[in-house]
């Protein structure tokens, strides 16, 4: 259990540093997010229309309209543009400390989960170092597919943004895997059984 806690903390630190680098140092997201033309006018429209905090999809249609080729929604959806709008009505200080603290806590929590899962698998499928690295990388790929992949498919998030975010997640968890795979190792009892089995097999040959 101590190894799991240590691995969770160290892995969370590694992933946190990686995220900071992808957004502030490396050009991972340079082309995935752009400034909206007429930003000030758009902000004024959001304020004037009293748009509340939430997620909005444009064009929006009822279940009946979505399945009706004759509906105005159907025509607008075919013509475009299509966009998802995420609105936070109340502003706050950019890059405030709370965001970094919360982000670090989330990364450590995720790393703890990965470490606990790896601990359970280390005595079975993941006895070698690289198998354990692959296990954690698999968690990152899984997370990328069910989150960013799903948003790309269902919410029409642009491909460039999806790929950059998926790359960030997958590579980040690969780096975490390289670290925690050396901390979370198979229980000694499993290693002893393997050694004994190998010795018996060698003796028989």
Automatic annotation (TrEMBL):
Would I find Transmembrane among this entry's keywords? yes
Is this entry keyworded Membrane?
Answer: yes
Q: Where are the transmembrane segments?
A: 5-26, 99-122, 129-151, 163-185
Q: Tell me what this protein is called.
A: Uncharacterized protein
Q: Which organism is it from?
A: Stratiformator vulcanicus
What keyword terms does UniProt attach to this protein? Membrane, Transmembrane, Transmembrane helix
């Amino acid at each position: 259990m101590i190894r799991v806690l240590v691995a969770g903390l160290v892995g969370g630190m590694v992933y946190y540093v990686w995220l900071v680098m992808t957004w502030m140092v490396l050009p991972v997201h340079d082309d995935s997010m752009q400034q909206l033309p007429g930003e000030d006018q758009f902000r004024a429209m959001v304020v004037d229309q009293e748009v509340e905090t939430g997620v909005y999809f444009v064009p929006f249609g009822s279940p009946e309209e979505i399945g009706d080729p004759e509906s105005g929604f159907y025509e607008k959806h075919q013509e475009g543009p299509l966009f998802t709008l995420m609105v936070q009505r109340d502003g706050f200080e950019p890059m405030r400390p709370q965001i970094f603290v919360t982000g670090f806590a989330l990364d450590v929590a995720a790393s703890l989960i990965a470490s606990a899962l790896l601990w359970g698998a280390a005595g079975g499928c993941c006895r070698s170092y690289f198998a354990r690295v692959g296990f954690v990388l698999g968690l990152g790929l899984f997370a990328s597919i069910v989150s960013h992949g799903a948003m790309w498919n269902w919410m029409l998030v642009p491909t460039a943004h999806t790929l950059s975010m998926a790359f960030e997640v997958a590579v980040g968890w690969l780096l975490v895997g390289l670290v925690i795979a050396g901390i979370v190792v198979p229980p000694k009892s499993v290693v002893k059984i393997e050694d004994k089995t190998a010795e018996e097999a060698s003796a028989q040959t």
